[in-house]
Every structure is written in structure tokens, then in C-alpha cells.
Amino acid sequence: MKLLAGRRALVVGLANQRSIAWGIARALHAHGAELALSCQDERLRKRAERLAGELGAARLYCCDVRRDEDVQELARRLGEDWKGGFDVLVHSLAFAPREQLQGGYLERLDREGFQTAHDISVYSFSALAGACVPLLRPGAALLTLSYLGAERAVPNYNLMGLAKASLEASVRYLAADLGPRGTRVNAISAGPVRTLASAGIGGFRQILERVRKVAPLRRNVSLEDIGNAAVFLCSELASGVTGQILYVDCGYQAVDAGAWNDA
Ligand code: NAD
Ligand code: 0WE
């Protein structure tokens, strides 16, 4: 059954074929959605163009979310290219200066890193939502990506944990704001996946191993797991769901990982 036939979806945050944005775009496409994709800059454009090509007539834009004019321009072009509006906005991007994601939280903390992480990883979701709201058709859905570090102190995740906590609060405030016009807003809190954003993070392999060992499903999440949950949240099947954080993590958040060491 195609859950998103006749729906138009913008997915922001495509870098390569390992991106969660790509997993979600593929799943939305498989369920009949017409797609637009956005990548950060010209540097990523060639690869993104090739990927967009794989999804039929997918449109591709560039938008650096640090720049207000880029966000406005993205919305303007979407309004032109998709007369009559669109239905789904997926926000799948985050950034903190690399040195913030290793070592102690306080030890690495500084004002500039804090501002950068919150600007790119948090503000951008509300900024994109605000710019796109006039274009959203009735029954639209917004979706962003979070991580367990929002609600637990995860070693090395540090500043990104604060940013994700604020992002999750944004989901609730946007849901309250946009609910009366019929727009739903949710997040997927995904288990760890090997992507560009997790490559080179010290100890990432051990994080994956730990999930495989103690998560109820005894495996790591796949891009398909995340894509399927995204299809659900963006479809009519989730018509009564808004303001929620859905864990797509093979159950890891539900258990006391420390107590399952030898399970
Ligand atoms: P990724 O590297 O494929 O995607 C991150 C994207 O952010 C890239 O496309 C990058 O270009 C984009 N980006 C960074 N700064 C930007 C800017 N200024 N303007 C526009 N785009 C910018 O990695 P990913 O793991 O797919 O990350 C996607 C989302 O998933 C992020 O929000 C991340 O926090 C979240 N997430 C990832 C994991 C994981 O383990 N990989 C787990 C849970 C949640
Ligand atoms: O949200 C993330 C990662 C986001 C991220 C990644 C990078 C790497 C490159 C943000 N900024 C940057 N900056 C860079 O320069 N995840 C959920 C993946 C992740 O990152 C971790 C994790 C997990 C899981 C960092 C430490 C510990 C666990």
C-alpha cells in the first residue's frame, strides 16, 4: 500500500548515500511521494544530484541553514516549483565543531561552539518551518532527527546533547503552534548509524557494538528502519500523532543498558 501517493516532500540534509536523509528520501519515494532534496552547498551538489536522479524527478536545492537568505530562497523556489504547496518537511542535519564531540563537556565548552551547534542543529528547524508554513497544504507533517543524548548524558556527545534537548522542545512548541492549522510535528530519535556525521567520532564502533549487545532487538538500526518510521509519521496513519519523539533504536532507550552487560 502506497501511504504517500500524491504527497510532496522536502528532505533537507542530504550528503551521501549513507545519510539518514537519503534513507528517509528513499522510503518516502517508495511510498509514492514526489520529492525535493536539499544539500548544504555546491561542494556536495554533484553527488547529491546523482542521488536525486535515482528518485525519478526529484528536485535538488542548496541551502546553508546558517544563512537566512538561503532559507528564504529555498522557500521561494519551492513555492515556484510546487505551485499549490507541499506536504512534508524532513529536517535531517546537525553540526557542532568537531573538538566539542570528544573529551569532557565542560572542558571543551566555549561560547562560539555552543552558538554554532544551536544555530545549525536547532534554530534551523524552526527557521525552515517558519519559511515553509505558508506553503504547507492541509494535513502536512514536519519531522526532525534526534538522539538519545538529548535525555541522557552520553559520553562525548556533550554540546550536541544540549542542542538535541532544545530541538526536542522545538518539536513540542512547533506542534502547539501549528496544530490548529492541521500541521503535525514529530521527531525520530534514531539509534547510532554509521554516516558522514558519525565517521571519525572516537569510540563510535564501541557504541554500535554496545547497542548490538544490549538493545532488545540485538542489532543496530538500519536506514530502512528509520525510513519506514518516517513514512509512518508523515502519513495519514499518524494522523493523531504530534509533538512526539519516536525512538527508532531497536529498543535501546527502553532498557537499563548497564544491567544487560552479559546478557
Ligand atoms: P550526515 O552527515 O549524512 O548528515 C548531516 C547533514 O547536515 C549533512 O548533509 C550536512 O551537509 C548537513 N549540514 C551541516 N551543516 C549544515 C548547514 N550549515 N546547512 C545545511 N546543512 C548542513 O549525517 P546523519 O547521521 O545522516 O545526520 C542527520 C541527522 O540525524 C542529524 O540531525 C543527526 O544529529 C541525526 N542523527 C544521527 C545519528 C547517527 O548515529 N548518525 C543518530 C541519531 C540522529
Ligand atoms: O548527532 C550526531 C552527530 C552530529 C554531528 C557530527 C559531527 C561530526 C563532524 C555534529 N557535528 C559534527 N561535527 C563534525 O565536525 N549523532 C547522533 C551521531 C553521534 O555523534 C556522537 C555520538 C553519536 C551517536 C558523538 C559522540 C558520541 C556519540
Defining key terms:
binds ligand 0WE, alpha/beta, 41% helix, binds nicotinamide-adenine-dinucleotide
Taken in chain order, the helices and strands follow as EHEHEHEHHEHEHHE
Beta strand %: 15-25%
- Determine the structural class based on helices, strands and strand pairing: alpha/beta
| Biggest pleated-sheet summary | 7 strands, parallel
- Morphology call: globular
Radius of gyration: 18 Å
Report how far the terminal alpha carbons are from each other.
Answer: 38 Å
Which bin fits the share of residues in helices? Answer: 40-55%
Going across the biggest sheet, name each strand in turn. 3-2-1-4-5-6-7
**Number of helices, where a helix is a run of at least 4 consecutive DSSP H or I residues:** 8
Give the low-pLDDT segments.
none
The hetero molecules present are: nicotinamide-adenine-dinucleotide, ligand 0WE
Mean pLDDT over all positions:
96
What is the number of E strands?
7
Quick synopsis:
It contains eight helices and seven strands; from the N terminus they run E-H-E-H-E-H-E-H-H-E-H-E-H-H-E. It has 263 residues and is of the alpha/beta class.
Characterization of this structure:
With about 260 residues, the chain is an alpha/beta fold. The protein is about 40% helix and about 15% strand. It is built from eight helices and seven strands. Strands 3-2-1-4-5-6-7 form a seven-stranded parallel β-sheet, sandwiched between helices. Helix 6 links the parallel strand 5 and strand 6. The longest helix is centred in the middle third of the chain and has 22 residues. It is globular, with a radius of gyration of 18 Å. The mean pLDDT is about 95. The protein binds nicotinamide-adenine-dinucleotide and ligand 0WE. Ligand 0WE binds next to loops.
